[in-house]
Amino acid sequence: MPEVIDWREGVIRATRDLTPRVRMIEIDPKGDFVQPSPGSHLNVSVVIRERPDVRSYSIVGPCSDGVYRIAVKLLADSRGGSAYMWSLVPGSRLTHSAPANHFGLALGRPDYLLLAGGIGVTPIFSHALALAEAGARFRVVYACRSRGDLALAQELEASVGDRLDIVLTEEGRRVDIAAAIAGLDPQGEFYVCGPIGMLEAAKRCWGASGRPADRLRFETFGSSGQYPSVPFTVRIPRLGKEIVVPANQTMLEALEASGVEMIFDCLRGECGLCALPILKADGPVDHRDVFLSEAEKTQNAKLCTCVSRVCGGAISVDTADRWHRPAGREGTP
Amino acid sequence: MLGSNAMASGKIFPLNAWYPAAWCHEIEPALAARTICGKDIVLYRRSDGGVAALEDACWHRLLPLSMGRLAGDQVVCGYHGLVFNSMGRCTHMPAQKTINPSACVRAYPVRERHRLIWVWPGDPALADPAALPDFHWNDGAEWKGEGGTFYGLKCDYRLVIDNLMDLTHETYVHSDSIGHDAILDTPFEVTHTDRTATMTRWMINIEPPPFWGRQLGKPGRVDRWQIVTFQAPAVVVGDVGVAPTGSGAPEGDRSKGVNGAFLAAIAPESETSCHYFWNFVRTFRTEDAELTRDLQRAHVNNGKGVYDQDHVVLEAQQRAIDRNPRSPFYNLNIDAGALWARRMIDRMLGREEGTSAPDRAAE
């Protein structure tokens, strides 16, 4: 169900670079301040190629001083949202929503495991602070490529101390998710935010541990894949169309831009409404959604066009359109 | 002006509080719908004996989950079969292999205490079991009695509190049972703490009112007490009774008298309706089941009981307020207890202002 967004105006109070690619942006709400619960995000109105669009960013920390904080990673293959956010300077205006939460923290569990990958640290940071505040038992694993990519690590360490384990690829370490799960109380909960590969691994390990699926909580940013974002071609034989999807556009956006009517809702690979049947794919299909199961992704029968891509080459798909016909065949019954 | 809302927000009930939702015996392994503070909630008993309280609207298309069915400890939506566990998390979605990670309904903190089920409609992170009101008179141990509930009483819950914090009305509304002119003539004292307000009235050397005369079962004049304590935001306990005058009750020795307590735990349903859980308990003739039945009937009896009389007044009062929204309420000296009670409520509301949690907050 589409969210009804209660838009309001804010002013950028300050920005601060946490890493060369992650910027903390402080937003002074012009109207009433709504206290965010841990795991909340703000929807913000961004302008991309002179057109308005909406992006969601996790809120960092409890914001008890009445100022919203988000951390935005500047993405090389950004569709334009992060570049717009990075263009904001103190005094800039920003239209944003009240905090909403799709990644709520359930208090009262005997134990917690929090796993963050890269910029996925933002909601996990808020969860960790709330658990520390509540006196809960928990552990945080924060995986990152290099020390220079760590955002909020010092602040996190200051609040949670040795309950934080930083795992850096540059030091030759990898997160042992299965071992981390084994160390979690049987009634404990596991919260994950990170790139899709980490999430898939977490789901796999959680499933293998035999624990109830509802105690694995996760949020994805829908923009990370197993492969880099490169341009690819979409063919729709039934409509006689061939569309090029640039690196900085989603397949869904490209389809709509070329006049293919689509239905969709979540735009982050959760609901499955935008999924299309795959007829043929040249390159590997980079499934970036959480709607299809692992087995379904292996079968490659469908892809969620709001987030998923093909790594080079072309993909042939069908759409729901039984109305239009290929150019040149109009009038054929 | 008693009728105005002190809060700029216009809110009249704090959300960060425990409110009664049901008697323990009413909640079985079956779906029961309640609206508390404007929040639609479905309650049911889990197989481990605990109680679950979930948002009564399916995540998908908002059909009340209470129209679905219980499958073990999980609720199956009656529309498309989405399944939610007792934490409010979706565990099944139709026609797909995965579950949308954001699919959940709110799970409200819930506690059973003193024979009632209490829910916390506000921020779950603030739900503190230590903040449960003291309602121990209701737990059936030392004090005996069987009460009931007016579900959906059509008045602002604060009108019930006004009613109970000022017993002057007994003389007019309940003149045939517990009313007495002495109530009007006797000075009273109102005191308060940070969360409670207490109205104390001792009527010394009076003729007992009919009800209390019968309970005492001895001729002669009595000392009568009414010590009514409000616990913010919506519990009132009235320590009431009589003892032969001169037998030492005002000094602390009530052993020659009879002692009862009227208990009220109220949950706002909406701005203009509430659920009023009541009981009248006593420490005399506690094993007398017939007296228990009689006392219950004396309070609620097809429109003829004491509380039926209050019910009529309260709903008529709300109707009048609705029709004359600009007419001020005037306050009298007798309203001191009610005004202190409202001050406590307003203080709680003030603490909540500007800190509203998102509607779809964490479970």
Oligomer: heterodimer
The CATH architecture of the largest domain in chain B can be named as: Alpha-Beta Complex
Poorly predicted parts of chain A: none
In round numbers, the mean pLDDT of chain B is 91
Total separate domains of chain A: 3
Summarize the topology.
The complex is a heterodimer of chains A (333) and B (363).
Chain A lengths: L7 E10 L4 E8 L10 E9 L2 E8 L9 E6 L7 H6 L6 E4 L3 E2 L10 E6 L3 H13 L4 E7 L8 H8 L3 E5 L8 H6 L6 E5 L2 H13 L7 E4 L12 E5 L4 E5 L5 H7 L17 E7 L3 E2 L7 H6 L2 E3 L4 E2 L3 E4 L16
Parallel strand pairs in A: 8-9, 8-11, 9-10, 11-12, 13-19
Antiparallel strand pairs in A: 1-2, 1-6, 2-5, 3-4, 3-7, 13-14, 15-17, 15-19, 16-18
Chain B lengths: L18 E5 L8 E5 L2 E7 L5 E5 L13 E3 L2 E3 L6 E2 L5 E3 L17 E4 L2 E4 L28 E6 L3 H9 L4 H4 L7 H5 L3 E4 L3 E11 L3 H7 L5 E10 L3 E10 L13 E13 L2 E10 L6 H11 L6 H18 L12 H17 L11
Antiparallel strand pairs in B: 1-10, 2-3, 3-4, 5-6, 6-7, 7-8, 9-10, 11-17, 12-13, 13-14, 14-15, 15-16, 16-17
Helix pairs in contact in B: 1-7
In short:
The complex is a heterodimer of chains A (333) and B (363). With 333 residues, chain A is of the alpha/beta class.
3D architecture notes:
- The complex is a heterodimer of chains A (333) and B (363).
- By secondary structure, chain A is of the alpha/beta class.
- Chain A contains seven helices and 19 strands.
- In chain A, α5 links the parallel β11 and β12.
- Chain A is globular.
- With 363 residues, chain B is α+β, with helices and mostly antiparallel strands.
- Chain B folds into two domains: 111 residues, Rieske Iron-sulfur Protein; 217 residues, Alpha-Beta Complex (Naphthalene 1,2-dioxygenase Alpha Subunit, Chain A, domain 1).
- Chain B is built from seven helices and 17 strands.
- The longest helix of chain B has 18 residues.
- Chain B is elongated, with a radius of gyration of 22 Å.
- Chain B starts with 18 loop residues before the first strand and ends in an 11-residue tail after the last helix.
- The interface between A and B is medium-sized, with 38 and 29 residues.
